[in-house]
Amino acid sequence: MTRLNIQQGSSRHSAYDLRDPYADVIETHTLALLVDNESGVLARVIGLFSGRGYNIESLTVAEVDHQGHRSRITIVTRGTPQVIEQIKAQLDRMVPVHEVHDLTVEGPSVERELALLKVAGKGDQRVEALRLADIFRANVVDSTLESFVFEITGTGEKIDAFAELMRPLGLREIARTGVAALARGM
Questions:
Q1: Phi, psi (degrees; rounded to nearest 5) at 92
Q2: In the CATH scheme, what architecture does the domain 27-102 have?
Q3: Of 90, 104, 125, 177, which residue is 20 to 30 A from 170 by alpha carbon distance?
């Protein structure tokens, strides 16, 4: 006969322990909302996050249907699975919100971000910055004798890697758009 360890604080799990072992796992999710393009909608959506202490890691908004006056909001947020479900349910109940999609769980999706990076440098640093930009397929969109402005599109990880390589070469400023995402296929 085996004994089950059901002491409080025990790191072992018992058959009687009904707590979800994944309840405190923090996940990153990309949510896509189709909303009415009218004043105050974005403030209401953001208010839902800030009012409950949820963090927004990335936020993009643009009108996608001029005739129907609809906008698409793409939000990247982090939380436990329960928190993510709560966010989706609360967003879905909002009147100006027509659709809520969790692209992270609905299947494969494409996510991209645009960034502009200003890099100042002379001599070998300029040559190295141009060489790395070529490897990362970044475009030079502005050039002076003292600096470059690079435009790069890709995943957040790609942009982070490019920025880290540019830092010792004279990275001065970064502007990022945030994530734009679409589900793949039909």
A1: -65, -25
A2: 2-Layer Sandwich (3.30)
A3: 177
- Locate the domains of the chain by residue range: 27-102, 109-183
Q: How many whole angstroms separate alpha carbon 60 and alpha carbon 78?
A: 16
Q: Please compute, for residue 156, the number of CA atoms within 13 A of its CA located in the half-sphere on the CB side.
A: 11
Helix H or strand E segment including 129:
helix 124-135
Q: What is the pLDDT of residues 94-115, one digit of tens each?
A: 989 999 999 999 999 999 999 9
Return the structure tokens found at 93.
């109940």
Residue 76: per-residue pLDDT: 96
Find the helix packing angle between 156-166 and 124-135, rounded to 10°: 170
Rounded to 5 degrees, what angle do the CA atoms 162, 102, 99 make? 120
Q: What does the angle CA 118 – CA 123 – CA 124 come to, to the nearest 5 degrees?
A: 90
Residue 2 DSSP one-character state: P
Tell me the CA distances in angstroms from 123 to 134, 149, 169, one per residue in order. Answer: 17, 16, 11
**Integer Cα distance of 115 and 6 in angstroms:** 52
Q: Is CATH 3.30.70.1150 the right assignment for the domain spanning 109-183?
A: yes
The pTM assigned to this predicted structure is 0.79
